[in-house]
Amino acid sequence: MYFIIFQINLVVCQLLSLPLAYLHYTILSPANVTRTTRIASPAIIGLVFCYFCFGKTVFLFSMGYLVFIHWYRWYILTTYSIDITGPMMVAVQKVTVLAFSLHDGKVKKSDELNDIQKREALRSVPSVLNFLSYVFHFQSVLVGPLCFYTDYMSWIDGTAAIGKDGK
């Protein structure tokens, strides 16, 4: 029963993320709310999802324990226990991609970068709120997928889906 509840919680959160994404797109659109509200809401909802699915566990372990947790689950445990490694792996991917984007934008010269690196390069460190919103975005915090920080911020700003006609 313990195992099934956690699976149900994960599915519920994934299903809730679809209507929440629609509400974020319509009600919290760039035309209706401030950029800060648009950035803060995914982070808050993502943290609520983490707490709902994993309880206090997700707040007690940092990303540095990812390898240890994998090892522990693989070699020590013989029965099912809550698995928080999925969200941790997604967070590690996001932090790593962000670090490479910052390196490309701050250290490398433009002529050393390919087209994708030029597009994703960051010239400055994101604010804490932007970072938390990116890492804990409710649609990807539990199982992914990974997206680049610049793509996420374009989505937040409402410029990601603008076509040639400006709509």
From TrEMBL:
<feature type="transmembrane region" description="Helical">
    <location>
        <begin position="39"/>
        <end position="72"/>
    </location>
</feature>
<feature type="transmembrane region" description="Helical">
    <location>
        <begin position="84"/>
        <end position="102"/>
    </location>
</feature>
<dbReference type="GO" id="GO:0016020">
    <property type="term" value="C:membrane"/>
</dbReference>
<keyword id="KW-0808">Transferase</keyword>
<dbReference type="InterPro" id="IPR004299">
    <property type="entry name" value="MBOAT_fam"/>
</dbReference>
<keyword id="KW-0012">Acyltransferase</keyword>
<keyword id="KW-0472">Membrane</keyword>
<keyword id="KW-0812">Transmembrane</keyword>
<dbReference type="GO" id="GO:0030258">
    <property type="term" value="P:lipid modification"/>
</dbReference>
<feature type="transmembrane region" description="Helical">
    <location>
        <begin position="6"/>
        <end position="27"/>
    </location>
</feature>
<dbReference type="GO" id="GO:0016746">
    <property type="term" value="F:acyltransferase activity"/>
</dbReference>
<protein>
    <submittedName>
        <fullName>Lysophospholipid acyltransferase 2</fullName>
    </submittedName>
</protein>
<keyword id="KW-1133">Transmembrane helix</keyword>
<dbReference type="InterPro" id="IPR049941">
    <property type="entry name" value="LPLAT_7/PORCN-like"/>
</dbReference>
<dbReference type="Pfam" id="PF03062">
    <property type="entry name" value="MBOAT"/>
</dbReference>
